[in-house]
């Protein structure tokens, strides 16, 4: 059995309070290991930590602080799965040295444009095509996406090019529909703690791309992955896309250190999205390379061939030529690190 | 017609780029008002700003910066409604000098305990009873709420005490069910940008309590209110409950200045939730008073009569006696400010 | 002797590593109290915690985490001084129920204007007059203050009005000079961790007003107070003036909860500065009241009679009439809380 | 002449207010270019922006917002110096494709250990040796550095190895002394807005390594560089070392995007310090590579041969072997990007 939690008691905790703490801990089925000092008494809890998640231990009178010893996520942890996971996205293996190269416009637009962009990013090295059919927009007056019509366009373009596709799902009622078309279900940053949606996505039979919330700690993020994993869906790819900070120089703050932090805690693949992290085309290539240098399992970049008329997020899109240039640099950097861009699925590569 | 937006061009913008900017702006149906300088050229856009929400103006070559002149929300703004709105919550008027006093446990628990707590907080001055039937928990292994059974308990307790009730809705599929039982629908901080849920709540015929997201700017928050208002539901109460910060001294960072900031931008009532903002019982009374002193239209406080066995968030609950004490101080402070605690509905006051 | 620190070892810590940890701890003169579990071993350190401040315990192989049990500050803590301290500022007692009302322009300007403003704020209830002679400005091209000439003006105006004065010191070489003129030495937010300056200020025979740094945790802040206290100067007043956050709605984020947090950790008086915290005149009165409601021992507000020509920070200054109005509200609120505005020194009140 | 600033007036600005704004602007020697709209009036200011730094324009009645068009820094900007600057550090050229490799322990310790570490990092590829003689410590009870004795040790070790040296200066009274020994003067993060110290450093005849403050925006940082440049010292190297954030996973938040942001605004070299940015040895190599991939002009890493007895920051030091490994990877990555590690000075290389 293990020390799973330490209670640090208040310096003025009374003897009856200490006894009550011990009784309370034991009533929960845990062993209590007491260590008294002049100023502070410490209680180590011994037992099965899973059962402690809901217990309000810090509300027990006399308790000053609760120090967890074990991480609160299980299935996402390296303890559960010491080797890096490789997630299959429509035939493209992501993780374990093989990089996802996700590219495409922010929103699904008309079929011709989509096909044109898909061919361009595929030629440049992209292996998963993206586009939003359901767009979570800050303003109710902004373009909200083409809906299922957009899913069909995206699927057709993916099939025509032999590329798996990824698209965002925003509504638990749409998970089944989106899963019918897409190879990879994206949960956006604003929905990272939409636990209802996570639970539905965990029950779909498609892998999930889980973006980090703008104010989520890395532990929060892994807990959200745990929601999907706990439903029996082991195929989660994490995506760092910038967090909130005080400097308006960039749209968000690209937390590149999150990549090696995650690698030290979890077996799940983790990719980076420098498009949303920075919001500025000039910053996307250097941050894409930074992400790969830090150990990311892939890069998500928005590409549009005419940003000034894009339906969504045009100002942060790379042009196809700019994408081709950074993709080439990523390929070289990957080689230096003993990695490579994941191959397209053989059966579809003819597309 | 109005200047609705200013484009600041790059210092090296070429003459053809400037011409292209003008053509592009005019093709969108806007007038362009050019002001040239040695270093920078500025273009003022004149027209109907509503139509600009989706246009990627900063993606036009030569544009350095886009400076909005008008706020992106309309219905939530003081321009749309210069007087403070008063929202009726099951007969309790919130806003315009009358304070909401929302109190109750984090999660709905067994009926006896709920009734006991409701009676205690009502006696102390609370006018809306709260309890969560659907709990968004960071961990999939934590207690997730009693669901519809919890709604029934809450309704029964509210009716027995003559208090309107508020409870959180987390799933767009449940909005109708929750609206059947509750007088006020809470949208939690983690769902503040769950636009699917906001849209559903906007179509329900019950007022909405919209908590501020942990990384939401005040403009983001008002834009989320706009989602509800744009569906035809004018009854939104905002709730400041702390934002993310770097100091672990408190669970979140209580942004008390948000209260007067909102008052300067919007007609919607805004209340404070010191329970979630601070996460520590000792900090709740001073922060509750601070919120009222800053002009809040009410206070949301979690109360439990046995925090150490609470199903959720026990460590941050006030005891009924502690609540009675702070409620009394709020009453005095309100009087000093020319305000008062909103009365319970007459028809129910006998309960 | 006391448990002063807990070491949580890595889950894969080897037996030789555990032995090495114990030897290392004992070689530092501490007792080691070992608690083994299946997954984790925990070591409690017993001894004099003061000696641990510099020891790199987390660098010992096998150590996963170091959990301090005692706060790192001593003289600033309630353990050292359980009753609230009252700091005498040129005859005005600050703390223990008596409020500092610090008011005046950002920078010292010409004598006539200074005298005019001083008389106005004194009439409104201010008991300490402020003005900056050495201004730390973000831009090297901005007005940097009048220097010693400004100190003289401030002293003369203070004497003429019978008010103690406070002014900022920014250079360790000037501490003696500033202490010659001022009754209270202000250390600004940007210098909160200028340990050289703190040490000099600790050796001056004047009380110190220590503003919180924009990215300082409350513990960092108390550690900076400890620098002053450790030099033998027990007279420190803390001042919350806003921290960095992501929302540009306000200049800084006013952390009103810092007031009760400090009260729970330290005996030092703590005041609030809503002028710098918000940067907008309309927000200053509500935030001043919020600070007092939360338990602050005073309020620092910038006042100027002609903000549009002020030498520094004009846009955030209150007009004398606006100050008089909020001062009156503070007086009433203080009475409600059983407090009062501290009286001016008797010998000077005739001024 | 140029549009240097835009004033956006309030929607309810009166005609007399508008006239007053124009008079005020003209009295400051600026031209006013008025653009009226139905909702908002905009005033463009034309003239020499340098003179505007201190003017409280937003305090003029009727002004809603002040939008600067030109950056507030001049000498640091690309306008002043369109080509990347190369800073000579004791014969080592930093910038323009040549990387600084700064390495050494946090604090200067005994001579033998210093020499041992210097030789090891030099063999691995380091070209500037570091060590702190004056340590700014959060706690007054921590080791504060060896002072001038430390400077001598550092100088001797640098001479013995033929490496230039860098050390921190914390006190304006010590700048001359530190400049006598060191080839590069470090201004630490906590002193980034210690304008007194910046001014002194600007008058020293040695280059300055300016670390970014923990809550400094990139514009704040460039303004602090401007303080040094404005004194006539053109040799400033910027160093990103992590900013404050809400996630305790890392000591600070490594803002790798700051590197390309700075490159787009300034000619000054910018290096990264993954040691302080992350605080954890396992994260230093991936973040060092990320920094170089993003375009940094060098890497600052703390190295100690016995971290568990280090006098300061032992827990975040790399061992010499770990440093050699990451230095080799940096060398390869630099080659891929068409850069190289800057050579040691020829005259000293024999050392």
TrEMBL record, chains A, B, C, D:
GO biological process, alphabetically ordered: aromatic amino acid family biosynthetic process
Residue ranges constituting the DAHP synthetase I/KDSA domain according to the UniProt record: 93-335
Top EC group: transferase
Specify the protein name.
Phospho-2-dehydro-3-deoxyheptonate aldolase
Q: Which NCBIfam families match?
A: DAHP_synth_Bsub, PRK08673.1, PRK12595.1
> For this protein, what is the EC number?
2.5.1.54
* Residue ranges of every copy of the DAHP synthase ferredoxin-like domain listed in the record: 6-70
Q: Supply the alphabetized keyword list.
A: Transferase
Q: What is the superkingdom listed in this entry's lineage?
A: Bacteria
Q: Which InterPro entries match?
A: Aldolase_TIM (IPR013785), Class-I_DAHP_synthase (IPR052899), DAHP1/KDSA (IPR006218), DAHP_snth_FXD (IPR041071), DAHP_syn_2 (IPR006268)
What organism does the UniProt record list as the source?
A: Rosistilla carotiformis
Give the matching Pfam families: DAHP_snth_FXD, DAHP_synth_1
Q: Which GO terms describe its molecular function?
A: 3-deoxy-7-phosphoheptulonate synthase activity; aldehyde-lyase activity
**Keyword Transferase among record annotations:** yes
Membrane-crossing residues? none
């Amino acid at each position: 059995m293990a020390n799973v939690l330490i209670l640090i008691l208040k310096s003025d905790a009374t003897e009856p309070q200490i006894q009550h703490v011990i009784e309370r801990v034991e009533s929960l089925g845990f062993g209590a290991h007491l260590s008294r000092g002049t100023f502070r008494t410490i209680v180590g809890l011994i037992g099965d930590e899973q059962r402690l998640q809901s217990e309000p231990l810090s509300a027990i009178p006399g308790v000053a602080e609760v120090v967890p010893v074990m991480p609160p996520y299980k299935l996402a942890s390296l303890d559960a799965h010491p080797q890096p996971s490789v997630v299959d996205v429509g035939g493209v293996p992501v993780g374990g040295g093989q990089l996802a190269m996700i590219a495409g416009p922010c929103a699904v637009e008309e079929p011709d444009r989509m096909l044109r962009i898909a061919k361009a990013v595929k030629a440049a090295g992209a292996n998963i095509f993206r586009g939003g059919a359901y767009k979570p927009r800050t303003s109710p007056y902004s373009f909200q996406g083409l809906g299922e019509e957009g899913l069909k366009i995206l699927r057709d373009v993916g099939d025509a090019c032999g590329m798996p596709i990824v698209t965002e799902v925003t509504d638990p009622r749409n998970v089944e529909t989106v899963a019918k078309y897409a190879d990879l279900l994206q949960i956006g940053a604003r929905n990272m703690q939409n636990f209802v949606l996570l639970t539905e996505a965990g029950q779909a039979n498609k892998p999930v791309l889980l973006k980090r919330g703008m104010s989520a700690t890395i532990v929060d993020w892994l807990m959200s992955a745990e929601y999907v994993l706990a439903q029996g869906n082991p195929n989660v790819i994490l995506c760092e896309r910038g967090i909130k900070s005080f400097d308006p120089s960039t749209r968000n703050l690209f937390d590149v250190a999150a990549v090696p932090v995650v690698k030290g805690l979890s077996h799940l693949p983790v990719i980076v999205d420098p498009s949303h992290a920075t919001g500025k085309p000039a910053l996307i290539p250097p941050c894409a390379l930074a992400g790969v240098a830090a150990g990311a399992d892939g890069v998500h970049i928005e590409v549009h061939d005419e940003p000034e008329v894009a339906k969504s997020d045009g100002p942060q899109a790379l042009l196809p030529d700019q994408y081709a240039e950074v993709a080439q640099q990523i390929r070289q950097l990957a080689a230096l690190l003993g990695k490579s861009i994941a191959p397209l699925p053989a059966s579809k590569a003819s597309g």
